[in-house]
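ok trying this again, last paste got cut off
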Amino acid sequence: QVNVVQSGGGLVQTGGSLRLSCAFSGIIFRDDVINIMSWYHQAPGKRREFVASISGGGSTHYADSVKGRFAISFDSAENRGYLQMNTLTPDDTGVYYCKMDQRGAIQSASWGQGTQVTVSI
């Protein structure tokens, strides 16, 4: 099981930037295991929604609402993942969750504890 510890977040004004990070331990790096890191956003009173993902090969995917504003990355040397968030708006307010999926020979899904992001007008 992968352990995920998140950090970052906080309060920022509209148009500002924040960087979220998550530290991983227990990731298996093997040819028969695909690791996919994702970020999700849960706005107040709403369900958790996909924001961005990055696979072990570096392929990235973004929700339409964050394309061009957010950037996901993964540092395999440090086992840390990041979500750089720019041009933030009040709609970006909520709790952000980091997730690590392992697929293939190992099947697991591990979530971080969540981190609050508040964007003020």
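PB: full thing came through this time. The chain has a mean pLDDT of 96.
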